[in-house]
Amino acid sequence: MSGSKTVKIAISTLVLGLAFSAMLYSSLSEDTQYYKHVNEVMTQPANWYGKRLQLHGHASDIRRKPDSLDYRFDVAYGGQVVRANYTGIVPDTFKDGSEVVVKGTLGPEGFVVEPNGVMAKCPSKYEAGSPGNPGGASHPAGVKQTSAAN
Amino acid sequence: MPALGTFLLLSCFVVAAYAATACLAGARRQSTRLTESGIGAFYLVTALMSVASAIIMYAFVTDSYAIKYVDRYSDAAQPLLFKLTAYWGGLDGSIMFWVLLLSVFGAIAVRNSRESHRELIPYVVAVIAIVEMFFLFLMVVHNNPFETYLADIPPDGQGLNPLLQNVYMVIHPPSLYIGFVGMTIPFAFGMAALATGYLDDSWLRAVRRWTMVSWLFLSLGLTLGMIWAYEELGWGGYWGWDPVENAGLLPWFTATAFLHSVMVQERRGMLRVWNMTLVITTFFLTIFGTFMTRSGVVQSVHAFGEDKQLAFMFTAFMTVLLVVSFGLLIYRLPLLRARHELDSWISREAAFLANNWILLFSAIFVLFATMFPTLSEAVAGERLTVGPPFFNKWMLPIGLALLALTGIGPLLAWRKSTIDNLRYQFLWPVVAAVVTGGGLVALGVRVWSSGTCFALSAFVTATLVQEFVRGARVRQQYSGSDLVTSAIGLVARNQRRYGGYIVHLGIVLMALGFAGDGFKQEEQLLLKPGQSVTVGPYSVRHDGIAITQDAQKQMVTARMVAFRDGKEIGPIAPAKWFYNKRTEEPTTEVAIQRSIGYDLYVVLAGFDAQQQSATFHVVVNPLVNWIWVGFGILAIGTLIALLPERALATAAVKVPAGAATGSSTTVLLLLVLLGASAFPVHVHAQGHVEGASTVVVPMSPFEREMQGQIVCMCGTCGRQRLSECTCGTAEQMRVELAGLVKQGYTREQVLDYYVQKYGSQEPLAMPIDKGFNRLAWAVPYAVGVAGAIFAGAAAFRWSRRRHGPEAAPAVEATQAEAWQQKLDEELRDLD
Q: Which of left, alpha, beta for B798 (phi over 0: left; psi -120 to 50: alpha)?
């Protein structure tokens, strides 16, 4: 392989690599969500307004508007509480006291949960991952508990 | 029994070590006797592993709950099938199953290639034996499935997770395992080729089939996973970019890339370094996937629990693997020089190259995104997550580009395509694509990704049809038979090429299915009796709720009627089942109305028995069934490519028209059968629950820290930490811990308290790292490393001694023989 060819290959690899990294970086900033416990956020709530969050805590005081799918509930963790609003189907395991991760944005009015943004931790007899961690240990609304042997 | 099992595993380790050492030494000393003894030992591992597997299965069948593994994954009531398959239901057993498969595959591969690749075999045996040793080592020091309870043998087991008691879950993991383990064989041959320096293309021929078979099983495993998710999980989709799904996908990408680029090497002698890299990478990714799902590095519903020690051992193994394999590759670079250069960018080589880069990029991207939460936590200290939308955003254009290449590749000539050639080849496919695209726009389809996908599908299909028709015409002219017979003869004459095209057709159908997702319509709502909802062409009316009971469970079923375009198509019954012992967590029984165009998919999400109202998730999934059909065709194509060369050739040459139509009917029948089997019977998983647990939230950071240091002692949770475990025991222990913290215990005092209470360090998440404990940690590693060094040194010394000239003629004789054989093969492979 001649020198000039190596240089050409190196340059094109570099350019492609940079382009991909730039694209990756820009799309990442849109699509990433912070994964936080309620107490980490609610001590300085104003800092988090408008940011997409996955909030981990325990649900309590769940109320549903009659004949609708509008829910209102508290999420508490580490002594801090936030009020959450949600419209849609909740998972079977979503009960008072259950451990949940909610996806959405925080505002002065409370936490607005995005569609299908309620995930409840399933108590699993299987040696599955730890609760409340993102990436699947909890399930979106309507999803049955899963674990697979592989 | 368990003692025998443990002993067998230990002997497997020793025998595998001998096999590796003897083969390496034998190869270097050119001692046939030593090599033969190594191969014998290698077969012995297979035998020993089979016996050990038989023992554990026997233990499951006879309910020997003294063995911890049996206790955890089986109970008396479990059906026999699930008792047997519980073998690979947990971490320890799945590693053992892995070694069993590897030893069986290794034995078959060695037997098959023993004569034709005489010079490679010793190294192949050594590499496979070393991989076996790693997994055996894991089992012996860390995850022994034969571990027993010393006292308090439980009267009944805890039972396999009901979700795994499902037919898909019986075949899905082994299928993936076969795919994963199969990839070790190409790696072993590649390493052997590098080690010996026999870097002509003969090692490729030895592994092509293995790669294809493994690839097929990997595809099957992934598809089964999709079907399971679609039918059992009830969220209306089939692929959620879960880390475990991704772990299976990663080697699939690189294996697919290899299957393509290997053709460039065979035809043109190019990409030789690249192919080797792909083989190594594929194998590495299978190990990495295992590591990812078993060490707790990423969290997933499917993953086995967190395990630092296991993570450490895997990391060490993977590091050694990368250093050795790429080190060898770099060492042999001078021998791997390409025989040709790329002549033109408008050539089939270039198309293959592009396909490879895209596939590799997909693998890197998926790996990156899967590891992103872990990476961000390690780098930035903050856990950032990316969800399916992020994956989709990237993988959609990548998938479309791949689909386009599927069509473009076969149209380009090797070396260089001329303008005339391009016009001749591309005219009809492009017309098909443009017509389809234009038609879709005219019909008002506005989903750009799916629209592009449809147009590309038309393009690829036209390419395939053109290839078949043109090929068949040529053949027809010279054989004089009709077009269909000629087409079949064509496939038979060149199975790999046309089998590959059939695989492409399967991919197109799957792509259609995926594109259908762009037109998915869904609705979540609450319906009172008599109310109905319309989604897409379907509407469903809710008539009320029926609550019925059988011995096992209470079933809440919504009585509904489905309509399509206003016409009644019959009752549907989405349900929730509450198992008597597990009422906390009902299972969701999806009602699916399948059709070629659309699936109506109704989930009962909640209900109010008094008012008879219920909440539903109604989804209309267009084209989803084409994914399963597409897989069926993909499997047929792969099988055709895999068939022994003469099997089809004789049939097609001798059989005249009538019979040939018969065989095409058989193909059709097969297709239908496979399609039917892809529409799986409704198998219901059972839900699983434990008692309701109110969680004690730590009051202080210190308490939270301590919850992370103590594990749940109920004995069933697999040493989950208190902060993570949800069972009742953990609950009590958390209360207890909260009390201790309140009393002002320090860290040492708390740890001391638990050590006192349970009489050992068992409740501690990590052993106290000092004094004797440190030694206990170090011993297995020290023994392992010492063993490895000893074996290496022995191999080296044996191979040094007696390197006399008298060995040389014998070598030449074997080499001459090998070359003769290779020549024969090459001649046979010429078209």
A: alpha
Q: B242: distance to nearest CA of chain A, Å?
A: 7
Distance between CA atoms of residues B221 and B228, nearest Å: 11
Is the alpha carbon torsion for B238, B244, B246, B251 positive or negative? negative
Alpha carbons B421 and B419: distance in angstroms, whole number = 5
The stretches of B480-617 forming alpha helices (DSSP H) are 483-493, 495-516
Looking at the complex, report in whole angstroms how far the Cα of residue A141 sits from the nearest Cα belonging to chain B.
8
In this prediction, the residues of chain A whose per-residue pLDDT falls under 50 are: 1, 123-150
Contacts with A123 from chain B: Cβ below 8 Å: 584-585, 689-690, 693, 726-727
Residue type present at position B706: M
> Looking at this predicted complex, what is its ipTM?
0.72
- Round to whole Å and give the CA distance between B170 and B166: 6
B contacts of A80 (beta carbons < 8 Å): none
Per-residue buried b or exposed e for B703-734, using 16+ beta carbons within 10 Å of the residue's own CB: bbebbbbbbbbbbbbbbbbbbbbbbebbbebb
**Contact state of A34 with B382 under an 8 Å Cβ cutoff:** yes
Of B232, B368, B376, the CB nearest to A144: B232
**Nearest CA to CA, how far is A49 from chain B (Å)?**
17
B818, amino acid identity: A
Judge whether A2 is closer than 8 Å to chain B, CB to CB: no
B196 vs B24, B121, B193, CA distance in Å?
11, 10, 5
> Closest by alpha carbon to B147, among B200, B73, B70?
B70
> What pTM, to 2 d.p., does this model score?
0.77
B248 Cβ under 8 Å from any chain A Cβ: yes
Question: What is the biggest distance separating any 2 CA atoms in chain A, rounded to whole angstroms?
Answer: 76
Number of Cβ atoms within 10 Å of the Cβ of B765: 16
Element (H, E) at A104: strand A99-107
Report the C-alpha dihedral over residues B617, B621, B625, B630, rounded to 10 degrees: -130
Alpha helices, H only, B336-447: 348-379, 388-411, 419-443
Question: φ, ψ for residue B63 (rounded to 5)?
Answer: 55, 50
Considering only residues 60 to 99 of chain A, which have any Cβ-Cβ distance to chain B shorter than 8 Å? 67-69, 76-79, 88-90, 92-93, 95, 97, 99
- Is the CB of A89 less than 8 angstroms away from the CB of B524? yes
Residue in chain B closest to A149 (alpha carbons) equals B89
Neighbours of B380 (CB within 10 A): 9
Nearest-CB residue to B302 (from A77, A121, A146) = A146
Tell me, what DSSP letter sits at residue A49?
Answer: B
Residues of B numbered 10-49 whose beta carbons fall under 8 angstroms of chain A's beta carbons: which are they? none
**CB contact at 8 A, B162 and B688:** yes
Distance from CA of A109 to the nearest CA of B (A): 24
pLDDT along chain B (831 residues), means of 10: 89 94 91 91 95 93 87 81 84 90 94 86 94 92 84 76 70 89 94 89 84 94 89 82 88 94 85 91 93 69 62 90 93 83 81 90 90 81 80 89 90 82 86 90 82 92 90 81 80 86 94 90 89 91 88 84 90 85 72 89 87 90 92 93 65 42 43 44 33 48 74 60 65 77 79 75 62 57 72 68 46 63 61 44
Tokens of residue B565, six digits: 């375009």
* Residue A5 in contact with partner chain B when CB distance is under 8 A: no
What is the rounded CA–CA span in Å between residue B357 and residue A9? 14
| Beta-strand relationship, B575-579 and B553-564 | antiparallel
Q: Which residue in A123, A139, A142 is closest to B693 by CB distance?
A: A123
